UniProtKB/TrEMBL annotation, chain A:
It comes from Deinococcus piscis. This is Cell division ATP-binding protein FtsE. Keywords: ATP-binding, Cell cycle, Cell division, Cell membrane, Membrane, Nucleotide-binding. Pfam families: ABC_tran (PF00005). The keyword Transmembrane helix does not apply. The gene is ftsE. Belongs to the ABC transporter superfamily. InterPro entries: AAA+_ATPase, ABC_transporter-like_ATP-bd, ABC_transporter-like_CS, ABC_transpr_LolD-like, Cell_div_FtsE, P-loop_NTPase. Residues 2-231 form the ABC transporter domain. Its main location: membrane. Homodimer. Forms a membrane-associated complex with FtsX. It is found in: Cell membrane.
Automatic annotation (TrEMBL), chain B:
Residues 60-148 form the FtsX extracellular domain. It is a multi-pass membrane protein. Gene3D superfamilies: 3.30.70.3040. Its main location: membrane. It comes from the Bacteria. It comes from Deinococcus piscis. This is Cell division protein FtsX. Keywords: Cell cycle, Cell division, Cell membrane, Membrane, Transmembrane, Transmembrane helix.
Length: 231, 293
């Protein structure tokens, strides 16, 4: 699903080498942690996948397609194939949970009826997946931080992406809410979606083990199929 | 998603965005209205000026004095076919004397003493002032034409004035349209900045640029059309009153009269407002998205 081949990334403005010759693969349907200290290169790794940054060297491929094929207007095509979750849930405060999830279908101009169901059915399924169908009418401020993040996950998966990227999804959450969010991400993974979680939450990575990639100062220093938090 | 449905969604987004930034919208609308008001006044003045100048142009004549014994009817026929000639007329020496006597009564007394001094004359009206010299030169070359006269000083001055006024009018219109464009650019950028969170999410979710830009194009269009509508509401009655008053005072002035030309002017303003609004919305939203990416 994800293929990094000798990928380096240097930010031209600061001359900082954010990633150095990273080579790795993530197979379809895997659940993978990407760990490292602050500044290790986790967000740069994610930015390359989102095409918010371009590699200085090497090649990044998603679902077999080199990302340099996605230029200009085609970047939106790439992003529709991915779900994205950030530390800040980025929900729109004036919209209900239901409307926030439906927003993803609206802005990607998804057909009102498709083989995946109607918009209403799809939003309902996504909210059910994250355990919040009963709060569909709630505004973000009426939800806890953990619930808000779960709505953000529902919004990310409502388009049925093949890949879900989560950049520090539990960064603002207490341990209990963090575990809830992680369980939701595992449920998404069980439905066949590849999940990549960038985090520095040790207890999370230790408590629910999955393959773990460790970055240190831009280099991939460990790829552990058994998981565990070791920097 | 059908085009109609998409347009309806963009319109709702644009209206919501305008409501959320009401101060900026009102400020821009005021600027656009004032600019289009001045622009409308300049266009109206320009049209009236053009009509007056065209009236003057129609009065410019070239007089070709014929040699004694010249074949007047043949020369008239030839002159009628010349480029730049709108109308040609052959005057006999007697007709010229009669005209001169009407304008200068002492001419009759001089003619009684020394005989009719005037030759037969071809009087040529030109299609436009800038054709005067060309027609005069061509007429002067005709066999049987002794000499040619036209108001060279007047023609040159009129041409110079016409060119200067048209250039100044064009420049003023360009500046006013530029001012309108910048107002709209500013308004759309303020609106996009206020929606930056939403736009960021849209782009990350995979919204196409055109989808993000749609509401802002409509916002620019609405601002342009709104400004044109308000400018028309103020300008049209005032212009109608002024031209009616001017027609009473100086009936000879060929000013635009009636509602037809004024409504046409309003439509022109609306088209300009809409065009500049769309262009402003497109440029501002495109620039904002480029900065975001």
């Amino acid at each position: 699903m994800i293929h990094f081949d000798q990928v380096s990334l240097q930010y031209p403005s600061t001359r900082t080498l954010a990633l150095s010759r990273v080579t790795t693969e993530v197979a379809r349907g895997e659940f993978v942690y990407l760990i490292g200290h602050s500044g290790a290169g986790k967000s740069s790794f994610m930015s390359l996948l989102l095409k918010r940054a371009l590699p200085t060297e090497g090649e990044v491929r998603v679902a077999g397609e080199p990302l340099n094929r996605y230029r200009g207007g085609r970047v939106s095509v790439l992003r529709r194939r991915m779900g994205i979750i950030f530390q800040e849930n980025m929900l729109l405060p004036q919209l209900t949970a239901y409307q926030n999830v439906a927003f993803a279908l609206r802005v990607t101009e998804a057909p009102r009826v498709s083989s995946l169901g109607t918009w209403n059915e799809r939003v309902g399924t996504a909210l059910r997946l994250v355990g919040l169908e009963h709060k569909r009418a709630a505004l973000p401020r009426q939800l806890s931080q953990g619930e808000q993040q779960r709505v953000a996950i529902a919004r990310a998966v409502v388009g049925a992406p093949a890949l879900l990227l989560a950049d520090e999804p539990t960064g603002n959450l207490d341990p209990e809410n963090s575990r809830d969010v992680l369980r939701v991400l595992e449920r998404v993974n069980e439905s066949g979606t590849t999940v990549l979680v960038a985090t520095h939450a040790r207890e999370l990575v230790e408590s629910r083990r999955h393959r773990t990639l460790t970055l240190r100062r831009g280099e991939l220093v460990r790829d552990d199929a058994e998981g565990g938090y070791e920097l | 998603m059908s085009l109609l449905h998409a347009l309806s969604e963009h319109l709702q987004s644009a209206l919501a965005s305008m409501r959320a930034n009401l101060t900026a919208v009102l400020s821009t609308l005021t600027t656009i209205t004032l600019t289009l008001l001045v622009l409308g006044a300049v266009l109206l003045a320009g049209q009236n000026l053009n009509r007056t100048l065209a009236g003057l142009e129609r009065q410019v004549e070239v007089a070709a004095f014929l040699e004694p014994g010249a074949d007047g009817p043949a020369l008239l026929k030839h002159a009628e076919g010349m480029a730049g000639v709108a109308q040609a007329e052959l005057l006999s020496p007697e007709q010229v004397l009669a005209e001169m006597t009407r304008d200068y009564p002492y001419t009759a007394e001089a003619a009684q003493l020394a005989g009719n001094p005037f030759p037969a004359t071809l009087r040529l009206r030109v299609t436009s002032v800038d054709q005067t010299r060309v027609v005069a030169a061509a007429a002067g070359m005709l066999r049987g034409v002794e000499s040619v006269e036209f108001g060279a000083g007047y023609v040159d001055q009129a041409l110079g004035t016409l060119r200067t006024l048209r250039a100044a009018g064009g420049l003023l219109i360009g500046l006013l349209l530029g001012g309108t464009l910048f107002s709209i650019l500013n308004a759309v950028q303020v609106s996009m900045y206020a929606r930056r969170g939403e736009i960021n999410v849209m782009r990350l979710l995979g919204a196409r640029r055109s989808f993000v830009q749609g509401p802002h194009l409509i916002e620019g269009l609405l601002l342009g059309l709104g400004g044109a509508a308000l400018a028309g509401i103020i300008l049209l009655p005032v212009a109608g009153l002024l031209s009616a008053r001017a027609a009473e005072l100086v009936p000879a002035l060929p000013l635009l009269q009636g509602t037809g030309p004024l409504l046409t002017l309003w439509l022109q303003l609306a088209a300009l407002g809409a065009g500049v609004g769309l262009l402003g919305g497109w440029l501002a939203s495109g620039r904002y998205l480029r900065e975001l990416e």
